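FAQ: What does a ligand-bound record look like?

Like this one, built around adenosine-5'-triphosphate:
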Amino acid sequence: MGYILEVNNLEKHYGDFVAVNKMNMSIDQGEIFALLGHNGAGKSTLIKMILGLVNPTSGEILIDGLQYGPKSKEIKNLIGYLPERMNFYDNLSAWETLTFYAKLKGVSANRCKEALEQVGLAEVKDRRVGAFSKGMQQRLGLAQAIIHRPKLLVLDEPTTGLDPVGILELKEMIRTWNREGTTIFFSSHNLADVQELAENMAIMNKGSVVAEGSLAKLKHDYKLKTRIEVKVSRDQIAKISRQQQGANYMGQFEFQDNTMSCYCESQEKMAILQSLLHEGVEIEDFSVEEPGLDLVYQQVMKQYTLL
Ligand code: ATP
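The answer part, i.e. the structure of the complex:
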């Protein structure tokens, strides 16, 4: 399928300050991709360059194989963008606002109806935008971003400021557009949202990508293991820890009170449980703790702030 976005050796300097530094990144057609990084890491600068709003100092950006310059208009039709904050005219209705964007993007007014339906604003289309809640304004922002059916939807911190229901609904919309073929590229500080939505991600630090890939790949790269905890009766634990240390997998466990625990590869956990049952261990309870993106992010940042 190829890449919808390719960034090669991209740099942005503001005077002596290097905001984006020899950056490389690629996004496959049709995926949901997240961009993570501390404040000031360079995420917004990168997004502005992808949108053609800021010129790179050097390097290359390819959108669906096209480069800014003579192809700028074509590229802008391929991208839909939701900024972190959108400012609308308070006195216009949602309908008037969206038809304004439709004209700008050369789209027929019929698409406004569909877009408002998709973001759940059809029933309030004649209300003044000034009276809209933050969540409703965000929906209107999404409607203008998708009105021209972009191939690549860029969302800058889309869940910021939304209530929990608003966040759930936004995630559902993102998944629906993605199922319909739109590639999604979003930046976020919310690791739980990224873990839930993104198939692949890039973590930025000081203007460069310092880690990239799926959560499974990053967990593997940073050697993060799955923790298994098994509770057995007090009578049994003494017997197991005394007699079965040499048995399959048993040597990996640590024993405390009536709990035994070990770290393993995620794909080993069922084999370990089966082996315990095979050894005759009577399990009273067990839990499995998979390392999440929060742990990956901590490890990545620890590595790069120590340098
Ligand atoms: P946040 O998560 O806070 O939005 P970010 O990762 O988006 O941060 P950027 O806004 O891209 O970070 O900023 C990267 C660095 O570049 C920051 O140190 C910022 O001060 C600097 N910077 C951004 N725009 C300019 C500019 N126009 N002139 C000078 N420096 C700038």
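Follow-up question: can I read anything off the structure? Yes, for example: The chain has eleven helices and 13 strands.
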